[in-house]
């Protein structure tokens, strides 16, 4: 059948890996925050913010590298603000997350209208271009030629190394597992929580940047719940960088499948596929599919 | 040579003075025991020494020079190490990760695991700790976890080692092992501070003893050099308590029906046995005292009777569903501290219905009069009351519910003398109203005074039951023969032997 | 203590006032930066809203769903439950209301609206029970499950609409009978000049009164708040905490469905995908701003409604989206200032 052959093609595989990029940046970012014990449900907002600022500065300056730096910096500022809320003032992390999501949604909508005079999208701009020489590599050429996707794949190993082999990782995890114990050993718990949140801000920025770059514009609502799917992937991946990677691949496969189905015009309802990531997450949480355990002191103020 | 000097250390939390003007010193290379009731200020003092709390006033000298600790980091840098009563371990980490955390050997932030392993394994070998450093903490038992804590101190080269009630969770064999390690520390010239409740251990291991009571030093003596004996020590701890007159304990002669029977009860929690072959019978009109070192299954008994715990084997027959509990931790379990007295009472109402403010106020007023709780306003929330008054309110609430079985857990812990006398009187009144009362406590005075029968629990099992006459005789003799306090000690020591499992063959 | 009660109220008042003041300050600065005249804009907003009955009516109309949904979320908040799933719950309930209103259109109006209310309440309530059950049985935080459920519910509604119920080429249900609409206030009070505010505004007020009585004046409410303050203690006092959690999630989620009454019976006559436009999240902000207090919820709903409608009236001068931004600023400044004020007074109290 046509459908099956299109799913089994390299094009499809390439699509899956590329679409995995924003999920993994978001999920891996959220994971750094949660490993430090801070639940960051404003990943959605952070991705939205960076997608917008990347597009805006890309259009204004015409320099992709500059706008990439600016977008990351803006996210960094917001994540510092978020850690000031949650770590310093000890405001409930969930509530702060909802607040940041609302605030960022309002901010981007306002600026979109103010600067581009549109309630739906910006003008088009040139996104980050593929690395041409990598395209020639057989099979995986389409995947690794996207610089952010390539970075994403490297990030799996880097994150794993940071979390489990470095002093920083050990201390960050101790802050999320048992801050009191860490404190009695002289670990500056709050400082590490700050770092964790900052990493989540930077990484989710890259996720938003990929989306805007891939679409060559910013449009209202373009994140479309990907930040929450990222959280779901983090949970299903049991807070481990490698597992999270596979969870993200599963979700991007769903997304690619959905698109393929829509194009092929079969009457399999795509809404039900859209629902899958969330449904699977709940089933995993209930314990139907494997067991999962968040960091012991996740969500608690210290 | 003095390792530590406390000089007029004072620390208060709100109105409560945990330490008031504590002055004493600890010699280098001594095993120094600190004793005292719960809430006497031992842990607070140790937390000050370890840099967790800052004293309000007073001086702390380490090796002769004054120090000001802002965090445990400062204490660690003065080679002070502490094993907390509740272990400070990260369950999901390996032994190795727990030990190195905070003092990692690393280059460019990358941890040198190979070197760390070598160092730690050498320590394990030297002190015969017998641990696998790759194991996760959650897979270790309590005694192994304690060894990890000790390993943490050794890894940090600590010279002054603080142990907060290290033996309360250990079995006799494990305690023996632990003491061997302490001996080794001493032979290496380290100083050991040892907080405990257990007098026999103090006699066995200590060089010097300091007793704290209500935030002050009340007794100090060198154990061997100055010939301290057990009875003197026990008087130092318990002697001054009887300042209020005891209520008369006269029991009705009528036999009450048995309302609670537990037989062959076994209960596992997290794969650990908490109760095994546990048996108890509780009748109306009696107070059954359960006595034991904390963590021997007392909480599980209460949870079983309350019906919070259902995964047990054995026979549990409750003839009534009307059970009240006065839990051991007032703040966490006993009350809604954001609520006023009356509002706390509303929670006992069975039917859902309209509750007016006046109704709530009326209850607050009644309770404040009948139970002698002084209030600045009828709307005061419980948070603004003293511990004793809070406990009275909880008592009033549970007694008013008029339930058949009443479980009391450490009912006078952290309560002032007047309130505790009042509470004891109320307990006896309830008994005489033919309630079935289960009194779980670690305060021997309280248990002997109130219990009609007393069961000693050890490792999840009642290992010995004393009946009233046995308790009475011994207690009366202890009371009346001032010249020979040894008598009083007899029953204490007898119970104590069972409590620590040294006499369980019967 | 009485003075303490007063001072707690006082603290809340101080922090709300301070954060509103801060917001105004930020907005003025923002307007100056983008080269607009704040005085002109503020006075335009005020004159548009309070200059005509129509403006006031529209504000009441926009406040209606916020009051209803805010109360629903506050029920959960009082039990210390974070219901992030109101967006999904209210959609499920409203969808049920619209469908039953259409298919049972033959029933006399009073019976119809009661049936629809029940249907909506139960459907939303059931979607509230799911996270509650998972929390009780599996000890999984309700935050993640409610977030996930939002997407599941919306996808399901999307599916049912497309496959079965939608009017062709739209994403909405069939319209209800013309004579099944709730009356508009302007039908009886000409002052409102044809504004959309309708009888469901009174339903919203009634809900906040019932909310007040239920939470503050009944045994159930005392128990619910007790569970919110301290679940362990509640258990030892003898409260069936599981039952309370289930009930508060059911009632809280159920209430959110009633926003559908305003949209379906009072305004459009049908359910449309996306009608809620993040109402479920905005209502969290409303409830927070109100400290979960019913009178506060009415006031903060009015404030948010003024912003919403005010945006439209200044759209010529500055994008109306500025009002969304202002809502965001209010919520962030309230969160931070509230906490900062508390920390400040605690320190002062200790010294």
Describe this structure in words.
The complex is a heterotrimer of chains A (302), B (506) and C (351). Chain A is mainly α. Chain A has a single domain, classed as ABC transporter involved in vitamin B12 uptake, BtuC, CATH 1.10.3470.10. Helix content of chain A is 73%, strand content 0%. Chain A is built from 13 helices and no strands. In chain A, helix 2 packs across helix 11, helix 2 crosses helix 12 and helix 7 (147-165) packs across helix 8 (167-177). The longest helix of chain A is centred in the last third of the chain and has 27 residues, at 189-215. Chain A is globular, with a radius of gyration of 19 Å. The model of chain A has no long low-confidence stretch (mean pLDDT 91). Chain B is of the alpha/beta class. Chain B has two domains: 2-241, P-loop containing nucleotide triphosphate hydrolases (Rossmann fold), CATH 3.40.50; 258-499, Rossmann fold (3-Layer(aba) Sandwich). Helices cover 35% and strands 27% of the residues of chain B. Chain B is built from 17 helices and 21 strands. Chain B has helices at 42-49, 72-77, 95-100, 113-126, 142-155, 172-187, 199-205, 230-238, 298-306, 330-334, 341-346, 357-370, 387-400, 417-432, 444-450, 468-480, 486-499, and strands spanning 2-13, 16-27, 31-35, 57-62, 65-67, 80-83, 106-107, 110-111, 160-164, 191-196, 208-213, 216-222, 258-269, 272-283, 286-291, 312-318, 323-326, 405-409, 436-441, 453-458, 461-467. In chain B, strands 6-9-10-3-11-12 form a six-stranded mixed β-sheet, with helices on both faces. In chain B, strands 17-18-19-15-20-21 form a six-stranded mixed β-sheet, with helices on both faces. In chain B, strands 2-1-4-5 form a four-stranded antiparallel β-sheet, covered by helices on one side. In chain B, strand 9 (160-164), helix 6 (172-187) and strand 10 (191-196) form a beta-alpha-beta unit. In chain B, helix 13 runs parallel beside helix 14 and helix 16 crosses helix 17. Chain C is mainly α and 351 residues long. Chain C folds into two domains: 1-36 and 318-351; 51-302, Orthogonal Bundle (ABC transporter involved in vitamin B12 uptake, BtuC). Chain C has helices at 2-33, 38-50, 53-78, 86-103, 109-138, 142-165, 185-188, 200-217, 219-229, 231-237, 241-257, 259-265, 279-289, 294-314, 322-350. Chain C starts with a helix and ends with a helix. The model of chain C has no long low-confidence stretch (mean pLDDT 92). Classes of the chains: A mainly alpha (302), B alpha/beta (506), C mainly alpha (351).
